[in-house]
Amino acid sequence: MKIHAQQNDNLDAILYRYFGRSEGLLEIACELNPHLMDKPVIPIRTPVILPEADTEKISVASDTIQLWS
């Protein structure tokens, strides 16, 4: 899906707005948009390619670390 950035957008904020999360999707979006990697804030109306809908099903593994025993 191709969208256009809004004012003060970054890739993480865009993913959260469209998918409700960025975990597991940010890496894919970075590969799809290498032209955005040098910009902390994406200029208004810059085209951004989002991952396909089936990537929403990607589960993010959560590792639990025990600090004290």
Q: Would you give an account of this structure?
A:
The chain is α+β, with helices and mostly antiparallel strands and 69 residues long. It has a domain at 2-49. It has helices spanning 11-19, 26-32, and strands at 2-4, 47-49. Strands 1-2 form a two-stranded antiparallel ribbon. The longest helix is centred in the N-terminal third of the chain and has 9 residues, at 11-19. It is elongated and about 50 Å long. Pfam families: Phage_tail_X. This is Phage tail protein. InterPro entries: GpX-like. It comes from Haemophilus parainfluenzae.
Structural topology:
Blueprint (H helix, E strand, L loop, with lengths): L1 E3 L6 H9 L6 H7 L14 E3 L20
Antiparallel strand pairs: 1-2
Dominant shape: elongated
Q: Secondary-structure element sequence? A: EHHE
Number of strands: 2
Strand portion, in percent?
5-15%
With strands numbered from the N-terminus, the spatial order across the biggest sheet is 1-2
Distance between the termini: 47 Å
Structural class designation: alpha+beta
Mean of all residue-level pLDDT scores? 87
- Rg over CA atoms, rounded to whole Å, is 14 Å
Largest sheet: 2 strands, antiparallel
In the predicted model, the low-confidence regions spanning at least 5 consecutive residues are: none
Helix coverage percent: 10-25%
So how many helices?
2
Task: Give keywords.
GpX-like; Phage tail protein; two-stranded antiparallel sheet; 2 strands; 69 residues; 9% strand
In short:
It is built from two helices and two strands.
